[in-house]
């Protein structure tokens, strides 16, 4: 009978699994075993982690929406939308909305590049950041309210935006600088094959339902994230985790709004 492997001698597979779970805990507020947080494994936020987070979030939100419709049919659609919007924000801990606020604050605040770097590290939000948060929350609520087919829209919005992010990040990094360290650097330095593979999986997931509007919605996510990245990266201090969060949140909203047309 063999004894458990010491901390430094755990199989590589287990280290990858623990890093994956730690990445999920960072990207969402879904619980993972306390031992994962104490294990000392490096944080892994690559294409697989992003796709896994998207699938979990989309699945939970779609199931929650179905449950409300199935067992609480008296709940009016505006109230159901508010409940889903609140659940969406709680499940992510607002991490992507924080990226929206910091990115747009940096982009529009009339300050020096040094001050913009300080803004990104400051937990307090300025006027531009607060206005961006309000507009993005309203836009997402509107998208949830109007999107059709509803369950597929709610499921695929978090999946597609996260599936497309790694390859979008790599494309943008060819033209714009990458911030030192952090999630932004991790994304663009990951495997190009894995990034492209996850993007293709996301595209396949958009094609399989056979709904033409979902296909065009997925196109809106991909092209919209690329466009917004090219538009705002020159105005901020390089590609970073904040920009990644901004692109994810934007992609979700673009998909929901595209399916409302």
Helix content: over 70%
Q: What overall geometry do the principal axes of the alpha carbons give?
A: globular
Radius of gyration: 19 Å
Compute the separation of the termini in Å: 63 Å
- The helix/strand order is HHHHHHHHHHHH
Overall description:
The protein has 261 residues and is an all-alpha fold. It has helices spanning 12-27, 34-38, 47-71, 77-92, 95-108, 113-121, 127-146, 150-173, 182-188, 192-207, 212-232, 241-258. Helix 10 (192-207) runs antiparallel to helix 11. Mean pLDDT is 85; it is low at 1-9. One of its GO terms (molecular function) is cobalamin 5'-phosphate synthase activity. It comes from Leptospirillum ferrodiazotrophum. This is Adenosylcobinamide-GDP ribazoletransferase.
